[in-house]
Amino acid sequence: MRLLDALPGTVVMAPMTKGSNLPYRRLCLELGARVTLSEMTVARRLKQKRRGEFALIRRAPDEPCFGVQLAGTNPEEMAWAAALVESRGADFVDINFGCPIDHFTRKGLGAAMGRQPNRIRRIVEAMKRAVTAVPVTAKIRLGWNDEDRNFLDQARAAEDGGADVVTVHGRTRNARYRLAADWDAIGEVAAALRVPVVGNGDVLFPHEIEASRTRGGCLAVMAARGVLIKPWLFREASEGYLDLDGEARVAIYRRYVTLALEHWGDDVHGRARVREFLRWHVGFWCRYARRRDDGSWPGMQQREGTPVLRSDLEALLARGDEPALEFVTDRLLAGEPIEPAAAPAPVAVPLDADAVVEG
Question: pTM above 0.85?
Fold first, then answer.
């Protein structure tokens, strides 16, 4: 499926380090996703023929519109990597100009590139020349910090370089994920560019999809934490709010385990990999909170202090303390019933909204 045909009105699954693993993308596809992206992939590591990096660009056979997100600072390396992923079957190539993580920004990658709009233009130009039939897209943040909100310069540089779509995460690098996304700023980009814009930030419930898209003047919206917390957000985009009980949610989580075992293998090594990823995902699934009894909605930026719970199972699934997360992970991986009465006693845990590594 061509990207520009798939985008209008859709919810794009964001490129997320660890979160956009192939089995989780497959789960989201089964729940209605149409446009998916790989985890952030470093172009230089591909050129060094690192096996782990090549695993990141693998496409699932059932992905209708799959993009690979690349990160790098050298236009020639990025061009080489773009041609490579096109030859490997990607439907589009995305460029990471927004990752805020220190490990990458210290190397000049991700959001550090946003401080150099001219380099953004050169990298996009080089990658456009290197591919023959697929779009090149660029993902930016609003700037490095509130004193340097150069998002229009970044977006225009990407467009001038030939980007077919620009995605805007509505926060600065220094804001990470702590502050609410600025959809008015995203709207400024959409109004200034000739190419389509995708807006990213704080979409968690279905009514927020169209509201955010309209406010930002965007062709589509992108979701990261929203689909880590509730992968059925894609289904809600077409069916409306789904008030899933604990058993229905556990069935979805068990489906992820099945897909993960298919991918990594049902042996000692494979199960170790599955457990690593499963435990990470459980740490997001526990953040799910349903609509409140008064009809209002929980927000993305603060975990619900007193979520609406209808069973002991839901109470267990809402726990974010380490003993509970380990218990749920082990039961899911073993395929055993999740019995709240057998769970360890709760341990106090601080609330934290800033805990996803996004590409």
Answer: yes
Nearest 5°: phi and psi at 159? -65, -45
**Residue among 59, 65, 61 at smallest CA distance from 4:** 65
End-to-end CA distance of the chain: 23
| 168 and 293 within one domain | no
Spatial CA neighbour of 220 closest among 26, 18, 37:
37
Domain end, chosen from 220, 239, 258, is at 239
Could you tell me if residue 227 is left (phi over 0), alpha (psi between -120 and 50 degrees) or otherwise beta? alpha
* Total number of domains in the chain: 2
Catalytic residues: 99
Q: How many CB atoms lie within 10 A of CB 56?
A: 23
Helices 246-264 and 268-285, interaxial angle, to 10°? 150
Specify if 354 maps to a domain: no
105-144 pLDDT, tens digit each: 999 999 999 999 999 999 999 999 999 999 999 999 999 9
- pLDDT for res 303: 80
Question: In this structure, are 215 and 303 located in the same domain?
Answer: no
- Residue ranges making up the domain that contains 323: 246-342
* pLDDT at residue 350 in the model: 65
Q: What is the CATH number of the domain that holds 54?
A: 3.20.20.70
- Distance from C-alpha of 318 to C-alpha of 324, rounded to nearest angstrom: 9
C-alpha separations of 16 from 86, 288, 318 in Å: 20, 19, 23
Identify the residue whose tokens are 């690192």.
Answer: 50
Q: Which of 214, 239, 264 is the last residue of a domain?
A: 239
* Residue 352, pLDDT score: 54
